[in-house]
Amino acid sequence: MMSKPHSVWVSRPLFPEVLASLAGYVNVHAETGEGKRTPGQLRDKLADVDGAIIGLGDRIDAEVLAGNRRLRAIANLGVGHNNLDLPALTAARILATNTPDVLTQTTADYAWALMLAAARRVGSAERWLRAGHWHGGMRFDDWLGVDIHGKTLGILGMGRIGQAVARRAVGFDMSVIYHNRSRLPAAIERECGAAWVEKSELLRRADHLVLVLPYSAQSHHAIGAAELAQMKATAVLLNIARGGIVDDAALAEALREGRLAAAGLDVFEGEPALHPALRELENVVLSPHIASASAETRRAMARLAADNLLAALGYGPRAGDPPSLLNPEARGGR
Ligand code: 8YV
């Protein structure tokens, strides 16, 4: 095989057809296993490549980029990009991209999967059944969950995914309230059937509260002990955003003491580690950061990341114009 002018590193296993399409343009070094890398290891991996497709566990910052003169593009496999230090990438004139839009609907579906599972105790009931506990009859007043239909859905963070979560509430006859730093235009609010409220009102009124805000220093522990204390004891909390937005220790405490009915969590502070108290609780549904993991969507994310990377390196139909560029000010190359 002829060597090509550009080389890229892919930090995790990707769909073979996506790797093959990349390999049509550039030399591809793809990892075959998952794993967290230290800044030093990332620096080494990025030292001799022109671009990389990386995941949320790979933090790219000034330390990792120090001394690198070759790297021109980083394609993040995810819409959230708190693992990228954009100012550092821009200062080094490295283009950075993410994967918006393609995962919006699938991730919104998953918010509902968690909501339904947490409110109706699906995980706990299944564990009980698998453990062989269903002998004879069952009490009529056992396994009582909380209703979803007719209740108030709260959404914290009303970007594309938050809006898609809201639109799905119509079929459940819910009232939808949201809080976002900026209020949506009235036409979009109408289309989503959602009304803006202050955060404290959202916490007080929501029966089911979905968190879909990006992670930043400002959103760190946006839901902590003080916020949990404002919520109804019958409420259900769903986090499909990022670990660190919820104070997991405070949440576990609230769930254990019955100050909150249930929670559904796809993301965790310090994941892949879980707060040990969460593991012990029956009223929480836990999943390993899979909200975007449908066959269709993960393929679309991988394809978009590859398209972004190729375009950033000057290949393909969008050469020079990556579809989801995060730092246009870095254009112009190194
Ligand atoms: C992850 C996500 O990218 O898009 C995001 O921000 O959190 C997810 O879609 C996915 O789990 C791969 O790590």
UniProtKB/TrEMBL annotation:
Signal peptide: none
Start and end residues of each D-isomer specific 2-hydroxyacid dehydrogenase catalytic domain: 13-314
Domain of life: Bacteria
Keywords per UniProt: NAD, Oxidoreductase
PROSITE patterns associated with the record: D_2_HYDROXYACID_DH_1, D_2_HYDROXYACID_DH_3
Pfam families according to UniProt: 2-Hacid_dh, 2-Hacid_dh_C
Annotated ranges, domain D-isomer specific 2-hydroxyacid dehydrogenase NAD-binding: 113-291
Record-linked InterPro entries: D-isomer_2-hydroxyacid_DH, D-isomer_2_OHA_DH_cat_dom, D-isomer_DH_CS, D-isomer_DH_CS1, D-isomer_DH_NAD-bd, NAD(P)-bd_dom_sf
PANTHER family on file: 2-HYDROXYACID DEHYDROGENASE-RELATED (PTHR10996), GLYOXYLATE_HYDROXYPYRUVATE REDUCTASE B (PTHR10996:SF283)
Family recorded in the similarity comment: Belongs to the D-isomer specific 2-hydroxyacid dehydrogenase family.
Descriptive protein name: D-glycerate dehydrogenase
Native source species: Dyella jejuensis
Lineage: Bacteria, Pseudomonadati, Pseudomonadota, Gammaproteobacteria, Lysobacterales
